[in-house]
Design brief:
The protein has eleven helices and nine strands. The two termini are 13 Å apart. With 287 residues, it is α/β, with parallel strands linked by helices. The radius of gyration is 18 Å and the shape is globular. Helix 1 runs parallel beside helix 2, helix 1 runs parallel beside helix 11 and helix 4 packs across helix 5. The strands form two sheets. Strands 1, 2, 3, 6, 7, 8 and 9 form a seven-stranded parallel beta sheet that branches. The protein has a two-stranded antiparallel ribbon with strand order 4-5. Helix content is 43%, strand content 16%.
Length: 287
């Protein structure tokens, strides 16, 4: 049996992203989304999630390129020294400062708890957690996030490691992106150890990380055709272009429209034609 979670990141980023996520779930082309607790369009996303109860909603923990839920004075090591109202703007700066001992794990845990609880306080049952820019692939971020999830009663987390079959099926990806994904893969053993230690549930792996920004019909069909038996997560970033997205600090703009169209064109047809392919969400992961 092949079980597939299709999760859209960045719920709450822009109206066009929110709209695309709900429409795709209604069309049977998406099963899950992760909500940015401090996203500029958080409240509309919550309203839309309640109107679409079949959509599983997790927490997209943001520690880079965003603003904290806690007061900056409560998480001084997480905020940008040049602009204490927000986090560091790049993953490179975040990890450079972490390696220098300038970022405290207890502040990561506290901020993650605040983000998860903000979503829970809206009435949403948080299905799982993942992280913006996949920073939880690295143990010094993963461990405090696992503690935060357990503290908040959340038992599932994204497995951010892409298997070889998925990497081989993603031909158009650029050299830099391939290097980034391969660097992440070096942390796989530590991830598995910590997941077991904290008793968390996760999928067998993720696909679509390498394809971020190039996930069109052709790439998506290649991934689905290559997918073996097991439980996998397809990570995607669909959306409609709008003014809020243009103003957001993201490199993914036009590609969100392409991903939305690809999901609509490929996923419902694939599920209909493959009796062994089941679309699930993180609430069903432990079943």
């Amino acid at each position: 049996m092949k079980r597939l979670i299709i999760n859209a990141d960045d719920f709450g980023l822009a109206p066009g992203v929110n709209r695309a996520i709900v429409e795709l779930q209604q069309a049977g082309a998406l099963s899950s989304a992760t909500l940015m607790a401090n996203g500029p369009f958080f409240s509309p996303a919550v309203y839309m999630a309640f109107a679409q109860p079949a959509l599983a909603v997790g927490c997209h923990v943001v520690l880079v390129d965003g603003s904290p839920c806690l007061r900056p004075a409560e998480v001084p090591s997480l905020v940008d020294p040049l602009d204490p109202s927000c986090f560091r703007t790049t993953v490179g700066r975040f990890f450079a400062d972490m390696l220098r001992g300038r970022i405290r794990e207890e502040e990561i845990e506290a901020e993650a708890v605040a983000q998860i609880r903000r979503i829970q306080s809206s009435g949403i049952t948080v299905s799982h957690i993942d992280s913006h820019k996949h920073v939880h692939a690295f143990p010094r971020v993963l461990a405090p996030l696992l503690r935060a999830a357990r503290q908040c009663g959340v038992g599932c987390i994204r497995n951010p490691f892409e298997p070889w079959w998925s990497l081989r099926a993603t031909r158009p990806a650029g050299t830099l992106r391939r290097m980034q994904v391969h660097v992440m893969r070096t942390q796989g053993r530590a991830f598995t150890r910590l997941i077991r230690e904290y008793g968390m549930i996760t999928a067998d792996g993720s696909m679509g990380l390498l394809a971020t920004g190039v996930l069109d019909d052709s790439v998506l069909r290649s991934l689905i055709e290559a997918m073996p038996a097991g439980t996998w997560e397809l990570v995607c970033h669909p959306g409609y272009s709008d003014r809020a997205l243009d103003e957001a600090r993201t490199r993914l703009r036009a590609s969100r429209e392409v991903e939305r169209s690809a999901l609509l064109a490929v996923i419902p047809e694939a599920i209909q034609n493959d009796s062994g392919l089941e679309l699930i969400d993180f609430h069903q992961l432990g079943e």
